[in-house]
Structure formats: structure tokens, C-alpha cells
TrEMBL record:
GHMP kinase N-terminal domain mapped to chain residues: 63-137
Alphabetical GO biological process terms: isopentenyl diphosphate biosynthetic process, methylerythritol 4-phosphate pathway; terpenoid biosynthetic process
Protein name: 4-diphosphocytidyl-2-C-methyl-D-erythritol kinase
Pfam family, one: GHMP_kinases_C
PANTHER family: 4-DIPHOSPHOCYTIDYL-2-C-METHYL-D-ERYTHRITOL KINASE, CHLOROPLASTIC
Cited function: Catalyzes the phosphorylation of the position 2 hydroxy group of 4-diphosphocytidyl-2C-methyl-D-erythritol.
The entry's keywords: ATP-binding, Isoprene biosynthesis, Kinase, Nucleotide-binding, Transferase
Amino acid sequence: MISFPNAKINIGLSVVNRRADGYHNLETVFYPINIKDALEIVEAKELLFTSSGIEIPGYANENLCLKAYELIAKDYDVPPVHIHLHKNIPIGAGLGGGSADAAFFIRLMNDKFDLNITQQSMDAYARKLGADCAFFLKNVPVFARGRGDEFAEIKLSLEKYYIVLVMPPVHVSTAEAYRGVEPAKPAKSMKELIELPVKQWQETVRNDFEKSVFTNHPKIRGVKAALYEAGAVYASMSGSGSSVYGIFSNQIKLPLLEIDNVVYYGV
Ligand SMILES: C[C@@](CO)(OP(=O)(O)O)[C@H](O)COP(=O)(O)OP(=O)(O)OC[C@H]1O[C@@H](n2ccc(N)nc2=O)[C@H](O)[C@@H]1O
Ligand SMILES: Nc1ncnc2c1ncn2[C@@H]1O[C@H](COP(=O)(O)OP(=O)(O)O)[C@@H](O)[C@H]1O
């Protein structure tokens, strides 16, 4: 059985305050986009994980799909499976690819083996695997707060726009990004700001990570500026970076940037 986990972008992100558990409360909007991995499970003699496509850093046995399998196998009598992941979503890009794989894996196991896992239990498994993981179970635009794991559905459609995603050849660590921000309560909640017309977002909808990440990695600032020069109605870094997206009213001709090793996606 096969499924196609998709990525997300963050539209706006406020780091509100530091929590007692060392994490930060944030406010952001998660919006699903059409860049997808391919994830397949086949019943097998023993548990096996293989991958192709973009190389995944770290050990294969630490892949979030295997962690999700372990959680399910503790509670349900499931056979071993061969998991194959074809990785297409850029990694460490603020696109939530690992969390998407884990969430889709939970659903895939449920469907393949008729486990009848309740929505609530799937949600609980997902939360153990990553703050944004549960978002991918429903996969609809949400306003997120808390650790980025408390969701309220919102009405937001960018269907009439063209989204261009650029992956600069720079790695930003999430922990480094959080260290660079001075938390502050936003004057206006992202939930209200997102209701403004997209053409007003440039002045109002901000990602708090950009200031310090752009200072440490000016190339990423350059990508955002180039997207505006190319006519974007709105452009921003997604999450803690390093990917940057531009929202355009019209289809644009690529390539629009003259930076080495940059990957473009139209989504
Ligand atoms: C920035 C966001 C926003 O959407 O996404 P991405 O850019 O990764 O997609 C998330 O908050 C990324 O959350 P997540 O990807 O789960 O972070 P983790 O790997 O769990 O955390 C890495 C480190 O970031 C810091 N951290 C993370 C989440 C949070 N709400 N507060 C934090 O302070 C902690 O220092 C933590 O040790
Ligand atoms: N299925 C997976 N796909 C991508 N990365 C994974 C996966 N499982 C575990 N990881 C680990 O998670 C880290 C962050 O991955 P990713 O979800 O792409 O980042 P981001 O949080 O920026 O969206 C990677 O460096 C990798 O070591």
C-alpha cells in the first residue's frame, strides 16, 4: 500500500514566549502544499526501512516512520513490514517532511491492517513524534499555537495563486533559530492577520526567525528579495528555514534567481 505525504509552509510565525519545559510557545499558520514524498509498506519477514531520492541525514533506524511503527506495534499485533520512502521533500527546510511521513505512516498502517485506530489515538501517536506531526493527519490549513501542536482550523485558500518554493543551499538548525529570537507577544494575532488580503501580508505577516537567520545566512535574505523582485505578492521563509516561498498572482517563468545550487519548485 502506498501514500504520498505532502509538505507544509508556515505563513507568519511569532515566537511568543519561552516555556518552563525549555520549548517556546508560538503562533503560526500551517498551510499544506503539493510537494510530496512516496511512502510504501509491504508485509515482510522482518522489519526493514529503505529509502531513495534525497539522502536523509542520520541513521536509517532513527527514521520517524520506524518510530511510528514501534509506537503502533506496542499496542497492536501487527506483522513486520518493509517500509520504502522515496524522499522528495527537501530536508531540514521548515517544510515538515519528516513529520508528514510519520503521520501518513500511522494512517497507512491503520488502513493496511484494518487496525481501527481512533482519530484520538492517531493524534496521540503523532504528538509523540513531533510538534507539527498531528497537523498532517487532517492536513488542512490551521492556526497553530502552544508548541505548534494546538490547532484551530481556518478558512484559507491560496488556490488562485501560484506558489514558488526555493531551497537555498544553506542548513539552519531549528535550535539555533530559536536561540536567535527574542520572544514577544505579537501586537495582533496571526489568526487575525491571515484574514487580511494576501497583498497586505508583506506589511503585516512576519516570521520572527527571519531577522537572525537572515543575519547569519544572508543568502536566504537574497532569495526572499529576489522573489519580491520577480513580482511575488508575498514572500517569506518557512518555519525555521531554510526554504523560502513566494506567492504569485501569475505563473512566472523560471529560473528567476541567479544563485548557484538553488532548487526551485512550483507548487
Ligand atoms: C520552527 C517550526 C515551526 O513550524 O518548524 P520547522 O521549521 O522545523 O518546520 C517548529 O517549531 C519546529 O518544531 P520541531 O521541528 O518539532 O522542533 P524539534 O526538532 O522538536 O526541536 C528542536 C529544538 O528547537 C527548540 N524548540 C522547538 C519547538 C518549540 N516550540 N520551541 C523550541 O524552543 C528546542 O530547543 C528544541 O530542542
Ligand atoms: N522521514 C524523514 N524524512 C526526513 N527527515 C527525517 C525523517 N525521519 C527522521 N528525520 C530527521 O529529521 C530531521 C529534520 O527533518 P525535516 O522534517 O525535513 O525538517 P523540518 O523540521 O525542517 O521540516 C532530519 O535531519 C532527519 O535527520
